[in-house]
Fold this protein.
Amino acid sequence: MANISRVAVVTGAASGIGAATAVRLAADGNAVAVLDLPDTGYAETVEAIESAGGRAIGLAVDVTDRDGLAAAMAQVADELGTVSILVNNAGYSHDLPIQDMTFQQWDDMTSVHLDAAFCTSRAVQPGMAAQGFGRIVNISSTSALGTAGRVGYSAAKSGVIGFTKALALELGPIGVTANVVAPGFIVSRMTAKTARRLGRDFDEHQEIAANGIPVGRVGRPEDIANAVSFFAGDAAGYVSGQVLFVAGGPRG
Ligand code: NAD
């Protein structure tokens, strides 16, 4: 384990991509705040980091609760110090034809993916400005390019890209980069849920997906964690406002 150098926050870090990212950023030498809903497995992510010799704290927060999220961000700064790395990952997909989607479901979708990223980015900006260094990495999706039956998710994930590009322009002068990782099919609870909805066994679902992916396999959470680790590190200081599709083939 490298010496602890910076403080990172990862939202939705109880499972899947967020958990792998938190573990990876800790292995890179950062103290990591692991944020997720109550009664999820976020304590297990903290335990995995600590048992590998890293430093982590876990916080139960619903990222759609603006005041709760702002308070959690303040708590991270109190307990671990100024946040240098922010990964907005918490989210979920919802497959629903537009006619069946309610305004509440639409609002929930934009709230979890966009409002939360706005809230956390706003919270970390003064500290990043004061230290002249910051890395913001937002998790979008290949659905940002449009997926049938996912108007809300596609709009929110596309919004994440515009938000990040604007951040890159605005915060570049104070030493902050902002980039997007846009995953394709990744094995996680989210894709397991889609398999269930389609009445497919998860292994069969992965096989079908892999057949349409140029590299011939589905992605793992670690594939995304690797990309986030690059954007979060010193070596990526001249890379900002970019969208990296990690999807086993070209997109975008
Ligand atoms: P996952 O379900 O394993 O992880 C999502 C995490 O976000 C969960 O731990 C969940 O509890 C948390 N979360 C959801 N709503 C929250 C809220 N309101 N407050 C706090 N935490 C909340 O799924 P995953 O695949 O690891 O998804 C991570 C991110 O990657 C999501 O933003 C998702 O849209 C994106 N993504 C996933 C895939 C994929 O194929 N799995 C593809 C593209 C994008």
Q: What stands out?
A: The longest strand covers residues 176-183. The CA atoms of residues 93 and 123 lie 26 Å apart. DSSP finds eight helices and seven strands in the chain. The radius of gyration is 17 Å.
